[in-house]
Design brief:
Radius of gyration: 23 Å
Largest sheet: 4 strands, antiparallel
Order of helices and strands: EEEEEHEEH
Mean pLDDT: 86
Number of helices: 2
Strand content: 35-45%
Structural class: alpha+beta
Helix content: 25-40%
Distance between the termini: 41 Å
Shape: rod-shaped
Amino acid sequence: MTLDPVRSPGVPPLLLSIGNVHVTEQHVITPAGTWPLADVNVTTSDQTSTTTHTPAWAIVMVFLFIWFFLLSLLFLLARETRISGFIAVHIQARGYSYTEQVPVYSAQERADVLNRVLFLQGAIGQARNRHAY
């Protein structure tokens, strides 16, 4: 028999977390309150920006090889994409609302946050279906 040091016996397991927003099978838990899953509406606002830059290694390579090959200027065609910003997850329930701003630094993090919100919206739909809203 193993003991789970993180969870108490009466506490339901967390399905997912989005910043300070935690979701169980029955409730959404935020710093502003705890609401039944079927009563919650979730929306997102993507506040990320994507920029492209010439990486520093490409500029260094141009200066190193400019005297040997004029083709070294092709290094300037190398591009690096950077994503920065945040995704705002807005939760509304029973006249209350809470907005969690999740910082994003890569395309993978952005996709992860949006997939977590999509999972939460699916769980809300299933809860409403169970309660026949």
